[in-house]
Amino acid sequence: MKTARLTLRPLNTADASRIAVLGGDWDVARMTGRIPYPYTAEQALHWVSDLAEGEVVFGIEHAGSLIGICGFSPDGNGSAEIGYWIGRPFWGQGFATEASQALMSYGFNKAGVKRFTCCHFTDNTQSARVARKLGFRSLGPCTGWSEARNAHLPTQTYERHRPWTSALKSTAMKALAS
């Protein structure tokens, strides 16, 4: 997938060392649920090679270089939880929002997602801004696990339903295909 500035592409094992460097930065890892700290290339390779069944994950490229990851995990009932991270050298440039918009469009229009959820640790104000920009609605506080911090932490959770225009487009495309 392409956006104005980014390419979202499938990951491959050659990405592991770059993922470990960018994702293994303490300021990145501590804001995710799944990245341990420290994060080795071997751990990143294991993750790339063993994604959960049904999980949709893309590398985010800017100017030909991997700068982060975005993806979603469907729950089998039409909902999916979205997640993303951007390497610290690329923060503050709108890349998380741009990549997540493309990912959600893909989910709504091609993968049958009817509702996205997301959450962030309450001390992650950057992700709170991204969620608002993406049109998510707050569902309230909860608790989430941080592998890097090795703790359960307060989080904020959100949802965004598929726009009715996406539902109509998806239905029309299915009708044309049959």
Molecular structure report:
The chain is α+β, with helices and mostly antiparallel strands. The protein has one domain (6-177): Aminopeptidase. It is built from six helices and seven strands, in the order βαααβββαβαββα. The protein has a seven-stranded mixed β-sheet with strand order 1-2-3-4-5-7-6, with helices on both faces. The longest helix has 15 residues, at 95-109. The radius of gyration is 16 Å and the shape is globular.
Q: How many independent structural domains?
A: 1
- The CATH architecture classification is 3-Layer(aba) Sandwich
Q: What is the fold-level CATH name, i.e. the topology? A: Aminopeptidase
Whole-Å distance between the termini?
A: 25 Å
Shape: globular
Keywords:
Aminopeptidase, globular, seven-stranded mixed β-sheet, 32% strand, alpha+beta
Quick description:
With 178 residues, this protein is an alpha+beta fold. The chain contains six helices and seven strands, in the order βαααβββαβαββα.
